[in-house]
Design goal:
14 helices; single chain
Length: 342
């Protein structure tokens, strides 16, 4: 296991290094001045020469890349070309808002997704299986942006049950600390904390539920297929032959082993979830990383694009490695198959 962990961490570090090289090169690939693209400082700014020298633009590309890494680790990612805000500070706040709805959506998706997958597998080719497969196929086929618009039209406009956009009613004026509105309310402790918390829950409910649809249907199909594969294994048949009850065989033998394939695919599911999160943030005006990044692409705010792409790619890669480590720890036979000497 230690050698396997070392290999995974080495792979992560090498990939992150390549990502930083790609992000550094974007300063030259984007149109305009490289110093402006990386630091957010225009040519007519009095600090231009000082910042260009500090970032090594008077030397060769290797020196510039070394200075880029130094600024990167210090949290100096430049400033936005649109509003002159520090990119790193804004990324911290908006990253918290993005993680908030993404994590809540994934947590909500787990219970119905895994449960429906087990039910479908246990009722293979029966009415329950056909209904669940039909619902999962429909949920997978519906574009998230279309379903979000329908949800807003029905739930918010016609029923008036939930707000359309934003994190909270602006009257509460919660100071952003982490970017997660629920955590910020707990940290700020406003006078009307209960009312503010209820307002935040009403604002977050609709985007989270819409965002949870895609991972729910994917988890349903993954769990169903994995369960069908496990139920044919010899140890399941042996369990029934020994007189074990069906609930015990399912809960203690089938489901834990079926989760092996599900955990392996969670990395790909995360990539899709992040993509859908960016779309949801734009539709619901959620002040997250995706909303800010898409706005920056339209407005050609190059320092923000560099920082946002680097952060999202690093997040996805890190989660992939963590899932691989958890997968190898939880299922040692997988590690032995892949790395016999590990």
């Amino acid at each position: 296991m230690p050698r396997y962990i070392a290999r995974q961490l080495a792979l992560l570090l090498i990939t992150l290094l390549l990502l930083t090289i790609f992000a550094f090169c974007l300063s030259y690939w984007f149109p305009g001045d490289p110093v402006t693209n990386s630091a957010g400082i225009f040519l007519d700014d009095p600090r231009y020469q000082e910042i260009a020298k500090a970032r090594g633009f008077e030397s060769n590309a290797l020196v510039q890349y070394w200075h880029y890494l130094q600024h990167l680790f210090r949290g100096d990612w430049g400033v936005s070309l649109l509003d002159a805000d520090p990119v790193f500070k804004q990324l911290q706040l908006r990253f918290g808002a993005t993680l908030e709805i993404a994590i809540l959506a994934m947590l909500i998706a787990f219970v119905p997704g895994l449960s429906l997958g087990v039910i479908a597998a246990l009722n293979f080719r029966k009415a329950a299986d056909n209904i669940i497969l039909g619902l999962s196929l429909s949920g997978y086929s519906i574009p998230v942006f279309w379903f979000a618009q329908i949800a807003i039209l029905v739930v918010s406009v016609h029923w008036g049950a939930l707000p359309i956009a934003g994190q909270i009613n602006p009257l509460y004026a919660i100071q952003p600390i982490t970017g997660s509105i629920l955590i910020d309310i707990a940290l700020s402790q406003p006078e009307q904390a209960g009312a503010a918390f209820r307002s935040a829950l009403r604002h977050i409910t609709l985007p989270v539920l819409v965002l949870a649809i895609m991972p729910t249907v994917l988890l349903t199909r993954l769990m169903r297929n994995s369960m069908l594969d496990v139920l044919d294994k010899n140890y399941i048949i042996s369990g029934y032959a020994k007189g074990l009850s069906t609930p015990r065989v399912i809960w203690q033998h089938a489901i834990p082993n079926a989760m092996q394939n599900v955990v392996r695919e969670l990395g790909s599911l995360l990539s899709l979830l992040i993509t859908n999160t960016m779309i949801i943030e734009v539709i619901f005006s959620w002040p997250g990383l995706g909303n800010w990044l898409i706005r920056s692409i339209y407005e050609r705010d190059f320092p923000v694009i560099q920082g946002g792409l680097l952060l999202i790619a690093a997040l996805i890669l890190s989660v992939h490695v963590l899932l691989n480590l958890f997968h190898a720890w939880r299922y040692p036979q997988v590690r032995k198959d892949l790395y016999a000497a590990a």
